[in-house]
Structures are given as C-alpha cells and as structure tokens.
Write a structure and sequence with these properties.
The chain has helices at residues 15-31, 59-66, 69-78; strands spanning 2-9, 35-42, 49-56, 87-91. It is of the alpha+beta class.
Length: 98
C-alpha cells in the first residue's frame, strides 16, 4: 500500500464549484478498484489550498485510476478551476500512531 498526496490551489471564486464537484465524485473515486482510503483537506490559513490523501493497494491500481474515464472526467472539470499548478507525491507510509 502507498499514499498519494495531491496539493491543489484554486481560484477563490471557483472553490464552491470544486467542492460541489468533489461531493458528486468522492464516492466513485473511493470505490475505484484499489483505492482503500480518501480524504480531502483544506489549508487552515490559506483556504485556497486543498489536499487529497488517498491510499492505494498498488501503483498499478493508481495508474489504472489515472487512465480511467472517471479520472479523465474529474480532471477535466477540476483543472480549469486551479490558480496554480497542482503538485503530487506518491509516498510509502513508514509509521502510523493512533
């Protein structure tokens, strides 16, 4: 399992549109084969910045998602809302403390 972190900066006037779109697709993304967890975070002080954290069983599962019609439709709606280039990291979880 590994974690995918995506940082996205939005035009302040388009944040409500993004949140509405995310509400519609979040369960579809989470239900995609190989996706084990999905969360959306908003920066506490720079509220134009959002992060998604998703856990994937394998890199191939993430790649299958990234080449899917679902991703293409989500990205087509999301990309025009950005005010900065998104950044993404694929990381291995080293430790979890509860």
């Amino acid at each position: 399992m590994f974690v995918r972190i995506v940082k996205m900066g939005f035009d302040p006037l388009k944040i409500d549109e993004f949140l509405s779109d995310f509400e519609v697709v979040k369960h579809k993304i989470r239900a995609f084969e190989g996706c084990e967890f999905l969360e959306l975070y908003r920066d506490k002080y720079n509220t134009d910045i959002f992060f998604t954290y998703s856990y994937w069983k394998s890199e191939s599962d993430l790649e299958n998602y990234r080449h899917s019609d679902l991703f293409k439709s989500v990205w087509a709606k999301t990309k025009p809302l950005f005010n900065t280039k998104p950044e993404a990291w694929s990381v291995d979880k080293v430790a979890t403390l509860k």
